[in-house]
Specification:
By secondary structure, this protein is of the alpha+beta class. It has four domains: about 10-170, Rossmann fold (3-Layer(aba) Sandwich); about 205-280, ATP-grasp fold, A domain (Dna Ligase, domain 1, 2-Layer Sandwich); about 290-385, 2-Layer Sandwich (D-amino Acid Aminotransferase, Chain A, domain 1); about 385-479. About 35% of the residues lie in helices and about 25% in strands. The protein has helices at about 40, 45-50, 55-65, 90-100, 115-120, 125-135, 150-160, 180-185, 185-195, 215-230, 255-265, 270-275, 335-355, 385-395, 400-405, 420-430, 465-475; strands spanning about 30-35, 80-85, 105-110, 140-145, 165, 210, 230-240, 240-245, 280, 295-300, 305-315, 325-330, 360-365, 375-380, 405-415, 440-445, 455-460. Strands 14-13-10-11-12-15-17-16 form an eight-stranded antiparallel sheet, with helices on both faces. A five-stranded parallel sheet has the order 3-2-1-4-5, with helices on one face. A four-stranded antiparallel sheet has the order 6-9-7-8, covered by helices on one side. Helix 7 (about 150-160) links the parallel strand 4 (about 140-145) and strand 5 (about 165). Helix 10 (about 215-230) crosses helix 11 (about 255-265). The longest helix has 20 residues, at about 335-355. About 50% of the residues are buried. This is ATP-grasp domain-containing protein. InterPro entries: ATP-grasp. Keywords: ATP-binding, Nucleotide-binding. One of its GO terms (molecular function) is metal ion binding.
């Protein structure tokens, strides 16, 4: 589906660094930031367990197409090296550099793309040689990644073995890396919530159990569906809505045997349902008036263990449970809800920190119609809103959540192959973000356009202005 670029010539085409900048005579420059967008690695066992190999390849390719969006997670960096599984349109790179005032961006693309980006880097002689060279030019390199995976840690070890001084400012130590998969899983966060629920009464998840195996899971789910008129089934660590089944009243047969049989048939379509633990929980009807029904709070745990609150937001989630984007602003949540999701996030973060996790994480919630706020899951990595937050700090200011209202969509549907980046940029020019007005549309990806998706962020001085600008954008797209 996606063409893998094997040519080695374009890899350093965006290099603009002044080698003398910040360098003392006869000495090395202090530090070079290296970013690795290893999205597929974060959920590799899940991807590997797809029953449909064509779907598996599609998932890997789609994740690769999300890589240029992650550039905005680095919006505050003036210079850095970006390792991506797929080449990026040079026009988009220049647009990004201009918007975020980046003076030096080097992009490295391994010749082979398997989905395991850090493995691909290790097996690519040219990219590894360049990283080792950076280690000679700088006193150290600071490597950050979308997720701290075993493959990422292996790459770090290999570079250290090559006498490269490596710092991992956004990652836990190897001995504590288990926290990423454990707390980033549906079963792990459920265990943490159940244990700490005794300490804080409002720390709770929807009523549910952790199961294993298709047959037992189908029986539990069928019983819950018949009794409650709805049920949610989640694999332990899915991705972007995949691995989640949501059933409302009328979706399944009313009789147990028939209901169980239909659930079994659905679960047998993908091998991951048999391979990993499964969470079966009550269906919670969200209140769309509270952050769209799905509040969220994101945090960062520093290397000294301090838990830092970044922002709260409302998530844009469709009826299938698929995440689309975020809405960030001071008034996006009622004050009582904002306070609650922040406090609970701190409590969860303190446990993460105690167990050695370092880096970004968020907590997803469901705001129920009855007034309860339930923890849904935690993403123990860079999240779907991180790039929005980092872009906001760079483009509007560190207190942008008080100065503006922000809406985003990571994958807004548009006609496939209708727009090149150049054509889209020309069309959007009247409403593109301006540093003077601090308002407008930021285009976040060129790679996704081929698949029929637009990734964007809209900044407005208030919610009405942000929605007006977003409406104009959709109008220009003919939507």
């Amino acid at each position: 589906m996606k063409k893998i670029i094997k040519s080695r010539l374009p890899r350093f085409e965006y290099e603009t660094r002044n080698d003398d900048e910040g360098e003392k005579p006869g000495g090395k420059k202090k530090e070079r930031v290296v970013r690795i967008f290893n999205c597929s690695e974060d959920v590799w066992p899940f991807i590997e367990a797809y029953g449909d190999k064509k779907l598996q390849k599609w998932e890997i390719d789609e994740n690769a197409n999300l890589s240029d969006k992650d550039l905005f997670s680095m919006a505050e960096e003036f210079e850095f090296t970006f390792i991506t599984p797929k080449s990026i349109d040079p026009l988009f790179v220049e647009y990004y550099k201009k918007v975020c005032m980046v003076r030096d961006l080097e992009i490295l693309v391994p010749a082979k793309h398997t989905g395991l980006l850090c493995e691909d880097v290790l097996n690519d002689r040219v990219v590894m040689k360049r990283l080792i060279q950076l280690g000679k030019e700088y006193k150290r390199i600071n490597i950050t990644a979308y997720s701290t995976t075993s493959h990422f840690l292996k790459l770090v070890d290999e570079l250290k073995a090559e006498k490269v001084e490596v710092r991992t400012s956004e990652a836990p130590k190897k001995a504590n890396a288990w926290t990423v998969n454990f707390y980033g899983s549906k079963s792990g966060i459920r265990q943490l919530t159940q244990i700490n629920g005794a300490i804080r009464a409002d720390l709770k998840m929807p009523n549910g159990v952790i199961s294993s195996g298709i047959i037992d899971t189908a029986g539990i789910a069928a019983n819950k569906y018949i009794k409650e008129g709805g049920v949610v089934i989640k694999t332990n660590k899915g991705h972007s809505g995949a691995g989640v089944l949501i059933f409302h009243r009328g979706d399944l047969p009313k009789k147990f045997v028939e209901c169980e049989k239909e659930i079994i048939q659905l679960l047998r379509k993908d091998a991951y349902w048999e391979k990993f633990p499964i969470v079966v929980e009550s269906l919670v009807v969200p209140n769309p008036r509270i952050g769209g029904g799905f509040p969220n709070a994101e945090f960062f745990i520093r290397q000294d263990g301090e838990v830092e609150f970044l922002y709260y937001c409302g998530m844009r989630v469709n009826s299938k449970g698929e995440f689309g984007g975020v809405e960030i602003g001071e008034d996006v949540l009622p004050k009582r809800v904002a306070s609650r999701v922040t406090d609970i996030g701190y409590l969860i973060g303190e446990q993460f920190s105690k167990d050695g996790y370092r880096g970004y994480f968020d907590v997803d919630y469901i705001a129920a119609k009855g007034g309860d706020i339930f923890v849904s899951e935690s993403n123990v990595r860079v999240t779907g809103g991180t790039h929005v937050y980092e872009a906001g700090k760079e483009l509007v200011g560190r207190n942008f959540t008080k100065k503006s209202f922000v809406v985003s969509n990571n994958m807004y549907s548009i006609p496939p192959k209708k727009f090149t980046f150049k054509k889209l940029h020309n069309l959007m020019e009247p409403i593109l973000f301006s540093r003077k007005t601090k308002e407008g549309v930021v285009i976040c990806s060129s790679n996704l356009l081929t698949d029929g998706y637009l990734s964007y962020i809209v900044f407005g001085k208030n919610k009405k202005r942000a929605e007006t600008i977003e409406g104009k954008m959709k109008g220009l797209l003919g939507r």
